[in-house]
Amino acid sequence: MKKVLVMGAGQLARMMALAGAPLNIQVLAYDVNTNTVVHPVTQQKFALTLAEAVADADVVSSEFEHIPYPVQDVCEASGKFFPNSTAIKAGGDRRQEKQLLDAAGVANAGYRIVSTEAEFHAAIAALGLPLVLKSALAGYDGKGQWRLKHHEDAAAIWADIESFMQGANHALPQAIVAEQFVRFDREVSLVGARNAKGDTVVYPLTENHHVNGVLAVSLALPGRQELQQQAKQMFDAVAAKLDYVGVLALEFFQVGDKLLVNEIAPRVHNSGHWTQQGSDTCQFENHLRAVCGLPLGSTALVRPTLMVNILGEDYVDPAVLALPSCHLHWYGKGKRAGRKMGHINLSGETVAELAERFVVLSKLLPAQSFPEVADMAVKLAKSV
Ligand code: AMP
What we know:
Number of strands: 18
Shape: globular
CATH topology of the largest domain: D-amino Acid Aminotransferase, Chain A, domain 1
Structural class: alpha+beta
Number of helices: 12
Distance between the termini: 46 Å
Helix content: 25-40%
CATH architecture of the largest domain: 2-Layer Sandwich
Order of helices and strands: EHEEEHEHHHEHEEHEEEEEHEEHHEEEHH
Bound molecules: adenosine monophosphate
């Protein structure tokens, strides 16, 4: 039996625990908001301090990047923290992330770091408009983001950014990454794993559809090899630069035949949830294999699969389970508007079969809670 302690006690730790059980890997989670050690499935609390839980674990890992630095220091000092805190910090601070991407030599949108009004105007002059302005810290799912399209809006947006930065309560100085707006054709992501020896495996590129800045649907279909190779090269470059161990996700903008990295996630990723039904080895198992020093599992796509996020709802018509190859994954969380509550994985033996099933599934999902999903289903059906 191996014990893995995960920083963060949300659905990602929960799904790691579920994937670890058959391998005799016990996953416990450290909730950094309440400073308690919990079982990520039952939420049972353990009377352990962070130091005790770290000492008791064989491996320490993480399910999210916004871990307070003092907590990361305790993990790192144990010598068994995978991925390491350099990787976690790069995922949690867009300044470090951009520097990493440049150092790894992977293409990304042109940018400037902005802390003052003068730097804001210098960024506009250097990069041109439109610009996407992103808070360096604690920005995810489109939060802490502004779009500047016209010069006449600059003053108002700067005032808004300034009050955001002043209101932020961070141990670290906040700043803004001003980024060139990318007119992308698609958003795709690559999830993969790297072990301590430096071997990597990657899943097929996944096409992602966001609604209001939040992932709504991911599609894993057989894809073009050139694009997959390009993504794999970028993955290897970033993972090697970080001496990364575990599952890592890269999110890209696709512009024509070229990929630009948008951001990295030093963890299992929402756009990899489809691997539970669509791949030989799911991302949660491969993460545990990587951090526990076990051989990595095949990442082959065994059948076209898609994932639909369940946001802010704790009920889905059970009739969805009557659809062939349709699986529900609830996270056991309390209902809150917009919260990630669970997901649905749907597979087909062919893309045409998957598309057909997606149309049926989308009719069981109310448009109010699943906006744009019905349109995506129709679009996929028309594309085959
Ligand atoms: P992020 O939090 O960086 O993932 O951004 C959330 C969403 O905003 C992305 O999924 C894109 O749809 C959009 N976005 C972010 N950065 C850019 C950019 N530089 N150009 C165009 N769209 C962007």
